[in-house]
Amino acid sequence: MPDRLSDAEIKALAEACPGRVEARQLLEAAGVSRGRQPIWNVESAEQFWREVSHVLAAGIRLDERARFVGDGRASLLAVAAEWFAGNEVFARAAAAGPGGPPPGEGGPGAVFDAPPPERAADCAPSVLLRADYLVVPFVELNGDRAALRSWATQRQRESARLLTGPAGSGKTRLAMQIAEDLTAKGWLTVLARSGSPLSAARLGYLRTAGAPTLVIIEDAELRPDETLAIARALVGRSTASRLLLLTQATEALLRGLRELALPDTQVAGMFDRAEPQTITPLAPGPHARQVHFAAARSAFAAELGAATSAAPDAGPWADIEDLDTVLDVHTAALLAALPDAPVARPAESPLTTLCRHERTRWPNPAGAGADAATSPGTGLAAQVITAVTLLRPGSADDAEALAAMLPELLQTSPGELRSLLDELRRQYAGRWAVEALCPSAYGEHIAAVALAQSPSLAETIAKAATPDQAVTALTVLGRALPAHPELAEAIGDIIRVDPERRLLAAIDLLPRLPDPDMFVRVISKRVDDIPPGSPALFALLDRGRMDRGGPELDSLRAETLRVLTSLPDHLLGGARSGLAQDPALAGVARIVDAFTQTIKDLAIGVVDPKSDRMPRNPEDGTPVLPPAAVDVLRGLMRSDLWRNQGEK
Question: What are the residue boundaries of the Effector-associated domain, all occurrences included (predicted)?
Answer without folding.
Answer: 4-95
